[in-house]
């Protein structure tokens, strides 16, 4: 997986929390002919900046329409009539569309090769989306960019106050060139606007900085086409930017892109919003609403969903399945290899089962894109169409974004990103996770049918995101571990109640169990979430009235793990982890390791390819190490873990409670047995001899120390002290953890190279806890906000950590054996010196950043943008520990 796609994995702790939680803004004074800079929400890749030059009005007068648009000029009729005259492009904007809100989406059409920055570098991927309003002021037309962060109903006493403090920014201005013949519209010249260096419809500032772009070269840029349709405009441009670091050919001093900017008219009457509930997972948006009766500024969250209404409301109300007025349609990119098209379509159509739970039949359909002969106006960049775009890329990923109406959350279109090399990742994981029980996976290349079924599974997962569903990392916890060893159970249920979990393939089933259905499917939770989000209520109920009905539904499901939603991004709850299965990580991982032990020695035999080198064996060997490392992370999260169950006042019991003492203790013992006692089975010398040039043993040692560092993270210790203060003898304490870890790390009077490395790692981790003087905090963020993500704050200098660490170091020092061979003696002498240095430091060392980065299970950190619905869905755990 490329670094730019899963930034959290490589930036780790502090960088991730800033990326998810932090925001910044800048202000600048503006005068005529200066550049106005706006911060706007973009698609995959975060925030981009829209810029436009706002100049003083020109002096030339308004001409007759016929003087500008001659009789021979052909109009392209649609949302705006458009004209091309002598290389210039004109919009005829009718008065009826002045001040109407329009969604503007800019995508790449074609990109140069070699781009490896920010993840949005392929034709079809989104750069930016924002809302425009065309506004008339005297002899000019302005593009305004509305903000929807605060609101008040027009009937509210607060409405005018909100308007006064929420002024829409101006993106650009245009002189009116003429009025149309019946004075019902105005004519403007948009040539310079589309040819200009405006980030809202071109490269973002981030990409410009990466390639040292200094501006658009107009001599090598042009507007290709502007086409008008009934509810949208499509403008395609080619722009050449002057670039000091072109990724293709630096001798040109330039970098060239093709863009398509879609402008889609938003509904005059917005869809009724559905208020979100954190107990049911949906992407959404938040607004501060000053028009409620609450005695404070009320933050209201709405879910993202398509607008589905029954064709026959009476039949729907009788409980019959009814087709929607408008079906959700996804087209398959014509660039897709033909053999995968039926499987991608099947993954889309599989969601009809879920929509039936909401009362709709034939609600969603996948189709091949029409040919040019069938529909010459069809374009995969057109914002009216949702498309699965296929990228010729070595990136091992796929993602499912969507674009929604910021006023209500209505999903308007989606362009799923499908990278060709996701098949390589699927092959690796399916083999490593199932080959022990699945002979069909024991090969270097799968049949088209096998790969097609895996593609179908990924297609369903990504389409789920485009329907508004985020990852449900708590879903897989619903199924008992031993149930996943049952053929009857797995044939019916797959691996988890939700295809939106990262519950990949069944690594728990053992040889002889007879399990053959090994991957996820649309399950019980998915049916429930679609029912919750898409059910239609008759009687024109208000969002608040619908909220009451939906809350009652949710309360009735509460406590049933099949319908549990567990959010992504937190590291405090061991149920909410990616790539895990079952309700007990220690038990599940034990089964998983047993399977790895049978897979590893067979990699060379199963991947044999005539006249090929051993790169495939090396790749899969790394996958074994990565899978093993995932299991260690799954188990570690139980130590100092807390269960998170969001509730309302109507429900009994805690929202947060600690993982039981016995389970935390079991997790520590598991690590002693499976990891701290060196997993020598990972060292398969015959296979390593084919590709390893001296790095594997060090990586295993690094893995051991990395997990140990995770166990001893300040946040984990902070939660354990909190548990002890609240629950006393029922808590698994830090003292007990130190005792258990010491027993696993110092259990041999003649430690081997791995154990010596681990013992030094333990001392250094304890030393770091002693010598870190900085408080564990981020300015501007509350303790509750930090703790919500797993960064549980603690002032290490004033906590009980240091007294306990000093006591632990003294116990280790007095318990070290004497004598032994030269290497063993030197090792224990070194440990004595390290402990002495830790207990009697010359000076304190502030290592705040390092402590922040330690203890974050990097297999749990994925880049996520909940506003856009963007998800990187197929990250690999790095094995460069």
Automatic annotation (TrEMBL):
Keyword ATP-binding included in the entry's annotation: no
Domain DUF5118 stretches: 62-111
Keyword Signal attributed: yes
Ranges of residues in domain EcxA zinc-binding: 444-750
SUPFAM superfamilies reported in the protein's UniProt record: Metalloproteases ('zincins'), catalytic domain
Keywords: Signal
Domain spans labelled DUF5117: 124-311
Gene3D superfamilies according to UniProt: Collagenase (Catalytic Domain) (3.40.390.10)
Signal sequence residues: 1-19
UniProt-listed Pfam families: DUF4953, DUF5117, DUF5118
Name of the protein: Zinc-dependent metalloprotease
Source species of the chain: Mucilaginibacter lappiensis
């Amino acid at each position: 997986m490329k670094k730019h796609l899963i930034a959290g994995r490589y930036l780790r702790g502090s960088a991730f929390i800033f990326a998810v939680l932090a925001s910044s803004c800048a202000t600048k004074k503006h005068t005529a002919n200066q550049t106005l800079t706006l911060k706007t929400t973009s698609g995959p890749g975060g925030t981009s900046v829209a810029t436009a030059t706002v100049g003083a009005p020109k002096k030339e007068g308004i001409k007759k329409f016929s003087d500008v648009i001659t009789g021979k000029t052909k109009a392209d009729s649609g949302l705006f009539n458009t004209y091309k005259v002598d290389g210039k492009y004109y919009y005829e904007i009718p008065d009826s569309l002045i001040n109407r809100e329009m969604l503007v989406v800019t995508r790449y059409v074609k990109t140069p090769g070699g781009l490896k920055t920010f993840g949005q570098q392929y034709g079809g991927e989104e750069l930016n989306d924002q809302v425009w309003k065309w506004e008339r002021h005297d002899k000019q037309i302005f593009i305004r960019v509305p903000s929807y962060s605060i609101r008040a109903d027009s009937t509210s006493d607060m409405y005018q106050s909100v308007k006064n403090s929420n002024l829409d920014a101006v993106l650009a201005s245009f002189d009116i060139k003429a009025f149309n013949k019946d004075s019902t519209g105005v004519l403007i010249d948009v040539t310079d606007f589309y040819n200009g260096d405006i980030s809202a419809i071109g490269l973002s500032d981030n990409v410009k900085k990466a390639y040292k772009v200094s501006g658009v070269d107009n001599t090598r840029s042009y507007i290709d086409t502007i086409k008008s349709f009934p509810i949208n405009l499509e403008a395609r441009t080619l722009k050449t930017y002057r670039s000091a670091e072109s990724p293709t050919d630096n001798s040109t001093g330039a970098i060239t892109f093709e863009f398509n900017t879609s402008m889609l008219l938003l509904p005059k009457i917005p869809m009724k919003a559905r208020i979100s509930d954190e107990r049911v997972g949906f992407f959404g948006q938040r607004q501060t609403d000053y028009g409620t009766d609450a005695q404070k500024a009320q933050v209201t969250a709405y879910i993202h969903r398509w607008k589905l209404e029954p064709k026959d409301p009476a039949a729907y109300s009788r409980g019959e399945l009814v087709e929607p007025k408008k079906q959700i349609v996804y087209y398959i990119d014509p660039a897709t290899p033909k053999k995968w098209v039926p499987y991608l379509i099947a993954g889309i159509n599989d969601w009809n089962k879920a929509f039936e739970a909401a009362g709709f039949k034939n609600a969603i359909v996948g189709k091949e894109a029409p040919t040019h002969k069938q529909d010459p106006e069809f374009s995969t960049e057109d914002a009216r169409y949702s498309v699965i775009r296929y990228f010729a890329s070595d990136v091992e990923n796929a993602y499912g974004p969507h674009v929604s109406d910021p006023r209500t959350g209505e999903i308007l279109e989606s362009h799923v990103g499908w990278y060709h090399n996701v098949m390589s990742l699927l092959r690796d994981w399916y083999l490593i996770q199932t080959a022990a029980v699945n002979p069909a996976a024991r090969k270097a290349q799968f049949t088209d049918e096998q790969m097609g079924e895996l593609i179908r599974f990924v297609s369903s997962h990504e389409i789920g995101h485009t329907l508004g569903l985020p990852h449900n990392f708590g879903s897989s916890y619903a199924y008992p571990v031993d149930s996943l060893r049952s053929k009857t159970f797995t044939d019916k249920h797959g691996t988890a109640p939700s295809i939106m979990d990262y519950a990949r393939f069944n690594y728990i089933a053992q040889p002889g169990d007879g399990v053959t259905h090994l991957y996820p499917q649309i399950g019980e939770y998915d049916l429930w979430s679609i029912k919750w989000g898409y059910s239609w209520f008759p009687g024109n109920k208000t969002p608040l009235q619908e909220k009451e009905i939906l809350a009652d539904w949710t309360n009735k499901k509460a406590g049933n793990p099949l319908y549990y939603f567990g959010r992504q991004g937190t590291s405090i709850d061991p149920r909410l982890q990616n790539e895990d299965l079952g309700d007990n990580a220690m038990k599940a991982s034990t089964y998983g390791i047993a399977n790895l032990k049978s897979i590893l020695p067979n990699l060379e035999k199963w991947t044999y390819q005539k006249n090929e080198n051993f790169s495939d064996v090396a790749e899969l060997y790394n996958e074994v190490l990565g899978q093993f490392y995932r299991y260690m992370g799954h188990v570690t999260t139980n130590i100092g873990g807390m269960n998170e169950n969001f509730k309302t006042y109507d429900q009994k019991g805690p929202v947060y409670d600690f993982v039981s003492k016995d389970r935390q203790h079991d997790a520590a013992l598991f690590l002693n047995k499976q990891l701290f006692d060196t997993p020598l089975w990972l060292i398969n010398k015959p296979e390593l001899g084919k590709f390893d040039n001296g790095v594997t043993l060090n990586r295993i040692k690094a893995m051991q120390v990395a997990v140990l560092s995770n166990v001893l993270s300040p946040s984990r210790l902070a939660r354990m002290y909190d548990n002890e203060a609240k629950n006393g003898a029922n808590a698994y304490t830090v003292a007990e953890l130190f005792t258990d870890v010491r027993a696993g790390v110092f259990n041999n009077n003649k430690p081997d190279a791995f154990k010596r490395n681990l013992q030094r790692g333990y001392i250094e981790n304890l030393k770091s806890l002693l010598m870190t003087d900085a408080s564990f905090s981020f300015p501007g963020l509350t303790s509750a906000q930090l703790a919500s993500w797993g960064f549980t704050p603690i002032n290490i200098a004033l906590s009980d950590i240091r007294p306990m660490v000093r006591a632990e170091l003294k116990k280790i020092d007095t318990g070290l054996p004497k004598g032994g061979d030269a290497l063993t003696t030197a090792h224990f002498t070194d440990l004595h010196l390290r402990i002495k240095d830790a207990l009697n430091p010359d000076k304190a060392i502030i290592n705040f950043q390092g402590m922040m980065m330690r203890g974050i299970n990097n297999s749990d950190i994925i880049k996520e943008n909940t506003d856009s619905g963007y998800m990187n869905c197929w990250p690999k755990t790095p094995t460069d520990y």
